[in-house]
Write a structure and sequence with these properties.
By secondary structure, this protein is an alpha+beta fold. About 20% of the residues lie in helices and about 45% in strands. It has a single domain, classed as Jelly Rolls.
């Protein structure tokens, strides 16, 4: 009678080159999935800025703009992909959005709760990102 068993060799380890290649793969994958950040500058005397961009797959872009507590912010986005949204993240927060576009739409208007740098985070929903979809968008940001 023939028996097959899976044997593991506890002395078998990864070679140094295998470890280096694995580490490089992990670093490059993390970098690809990272968040790109761009500072938004208003023209002298202007209270608004418009950005046109393109994202693909799991790309995420943070547009950072400074504002003061009590000011009014209006952000709107037009896009050619229905799975393209933005969130707004208040100063001092990293993973807690004060506005979530995927549940509220691509239009925000409100008074700001704190002074500092706000992030307008542009992204694709996970299902679209997994399909490596592309979105072309136009983002308008107004601070009064």
């Amino acid at each position: 009678m023939f028996r097959s068993r899976l044997h593991t060799n506890p002395e078998m380890t990864m070679t140094p080159i295998t470890r280096i290649l694995l580490a490089a793969l992990l670093v490059s994958t993390t970098a690809l999935a990272g968040i790109h950040t761009e500072r938004v500058h208003f023209a002298k005397g202007a209270n608004s800025a418009t950005v046109e961009g393109r994202i693909q797959g799991d790309m995420t872009i943070d547009y950072v703009l400074g504002a003061k507590q009590g000011q009014s912010m209006n952000v709107s986005m037009s896009t050619d992909n229905g799975a393209n949204y933005f969130n707004i993240i208040a100063p001092g927060k990293e993973h807690e959005a004060m506005f979530v576009g995927s549940s509220s739409g691509n239009q925000f208007e409100g008074r700001l709760p704190a002074s500092g740098d706000y992030k307008v985070r542009v992204y694709l929903m996970r299902s679209a990102a997994r399909r490596d979809e592309i979105a072309n968008y136009r983002l308008e940001m107004v601070i009064d």
